[in-house]
Design goal:
alpha/beta; 2 domains; Rossmann fold; 19 strands; about 525 residues; seven-stranded parallel sheet; about 35% helix
């Protein structure tokens, strides 16, 4: 594939391999039937998933993994949200693993949040069974013991045999070929789960790379790399997961894409794929990944989907929420995601919208302060259309894909251009149309303008003023004041309860009464 230079900001230090990337914009979509070397079983699986063709980023990655590139280099992919990055790495990894008839953990995908991991697991689960592969999930959504039972295959014994988990002579095998995990739970299994090993890992995907590198997450990355690098030995002192004969037979398998000069060594190298809509250019952070002759695939920095329309709504008064209500009335019947700067604001804003009787929209809050079960239930209702408006903190910005989201509304201006890009990417996904609105007081306009200057000109110039008729705002004034009074009363009641029952911490209240007002950030 031809490499075409994409201009980068001169003020930033740029690694040599990022200076002449592969330009994904020059790659065309491809019908599935014309995709070279695609396993017929995967072709059928893709059709069942509703795919008739692959998007440019998916074609570009396929060419560099299954095509002439054949995994000889690690890949770094920088493409807008909604462009199809999950399938871009899932498809070639499943294809490569399908050609090897061994059962052990060979592919690991690490993501920053549980909800995102569950979403990615669904993509793999739609592909892997078609070629006889199994997929596991390690995110802390269930108990550790329940997860272990799905990840580790226990040996079968005759009746009356007493199983001793500390007996290293007993072979414990992986029950999955591919594991989708969050860093914290991954480290739990590495440190404590008998039979869990990364000894045979061949593919490591780091999705939402910039966030995973920014936050330590129990030093998961150096731990994983260290375990894989020492793969000629047992990967953890308390584990002897495979018999010597089994390991030897695995290591003799020849693979496409083994780096040059690796002949005669026990194992082929670990292939890494790192992806984000806003890949960091910081050399000190990228060096942690220990990439092997990396190839950079990008559409250009800080891009939004081409089908996205961006607007700013200028609020003529301090009551920004009144303008939000007027906007929601105009967008009635369309799924909307509203982003706020904090959990506290999200809770109060959701309550206010539900107190607004004239709005007649079912609104729910979604935040990191809620329990996983609460978030999953809310997300399910939103996907089904039972909930039409989701009020979120930035916990929802990364990678989450909900079909049919027509509008994203920035109630609060994001602090960074990266956050704006990720928020906007919740709509206009997979080639669909969508709108991003940002509510601005007069005093906030300069800051928002400065924020957009950090993005390509095409992003800033495309953001035009969205006029809301004055009469529509004035007609809502009475109902708005009534809703505001109910919110104030709710806040006072909640504050009184907190003083009366101090043992009920803010986190407890947030998880059990997430839509109520007055909760802490």
């Amino acid at each position: 594939m031809a490499e075409t230079e994409i201009q980068t900001q001169k003020s930033e230090p740029v690694l040599a391999w990022m200076r002449k990337p592969v330009n994904i914009n020059l790659v065309d979509e491809s019908p599935i039937a014309l995709l070279p070397f695609l396993d017929p079983r995967l072709q059928e699986a893709l059709k069942k998933m509703g795919f008739s063709s692959l998007f440019p980023v998916q074609v570009a990655v396929w060419q560099e993994t299954i095509g002439p590139g054949a995994f000889e280099r690690d890949l770094c992919v920088d493409a807008p949200t909604g462009s199809g990055k999950t399938l871009a790495y899932a498809l070639p990894i499943v294809q490569m693993l399908a050609s090897r008839s061994v059962k052990c953990l060979r592919a690991l995908v690490v993501l920053p949040t549980r909800d995102l991991a569950v979403q990615v697991k669904e993509v793999f689960s739609a592909l892997a069974p078609a070629v006889g592969l199994s997929v596991g999930l390690a995110v802390g959504q269930s108990s550790v013991s329940d997860e272990i039972s799905t990840l580790i295959k226990r040996p079968k014994f005759e009746a009356g045999f007493c199983y001793d988990p500390d007996d290293h002579a007993i072979r414990l095998e992986s029950a999955v070929d591919i594991l989708i995990a969050t860093p914290g739970r991954l480290m739990d299994h590495i440190n404590t789960t008998k039979g869990f090993t990364l000894e045979h890992l061949r593919y490591l995907v780091v999705d939402e790379t910039d966030r995973l590198l920014r936050e330590a997450y129990q030093s998961w990355l150096p731990s994983v790399l260290k375990l894989v690098q020492s793969s000629d030995e047992v990967s953890a002192p308390h584990v002897k997961a495979f018999s010597t004969a089994f390991c030897d037979s695995f290591r003799t398998i020849r693979r496409v894409g083994v780096e040059r000069g690796f002949k005669g060594k026990g194992n082929p190298r670990l292939v890494k794929m790192v992806l984000s809509a806003t890949v960091t250019r910081d050399p000190s952070k990228l060096s942690q990944l220990e990439l092997h002759h990396p190839l950079f695939l990008t559409t250009g920095r800080y891009q939004v989907p081409k089908t996205l329309e961006s607007y700013k709504v200028i609020c003529g008064s301090k009551d920004k929420s009144l303008y939000l209500v007027a906007l929601l009335q105009k967008l009635k019947g369309e799924k909307c995601v509203i982003f706020t700067s904090s959990v506290k604001t999200a809770n109060r804003l959701s309550s206010l919208l539900n107190y607004f009787d004239d709005l007649q929209l079912h609104t729910k809050v979604y935040s990191g302060a809620q329990r996983q079960a609460v978030r999953s239930k809310t997300l399910k209702a939103f996907r089904k259309g039972v909930v039409e408006v989701l009020v979120c903190s930035d916990n929802f910005t990364r990678g989450m894909d909900v079909e049919g989201v027509k509008n994203v509304i920035n109630y609060d201006i994001p602090l960074y251009i990266k956050s704006y890009i990720h928020r906007a990417g919740r709509t206009a996904r997979a080639g669909q149309a969508g709108c991003c609105f940002t509510l601005l007081r007069k005093t906030e306009e300069p800051r928002f303008k400065k924020l957009l200057q950090k993005a390509p000109k095409s992003v800033g110039s495309a953001c035009t003023v969205y006029p809301l008729p004055v009469e529509s705002i004035e007609s809502l004034q009475s109902a708005y004041m009534s809703a505001l009074d109910r919110l104030k009363e709710s806040v006072e009641t909640e504050e009184s309860r907190k003083r009366k029952f101090p043992y009920k911490s803010p986190k407890y209240q947030a998880t059990n009464e997430g839509t109520k007002a007055g909760l802490t950030e």
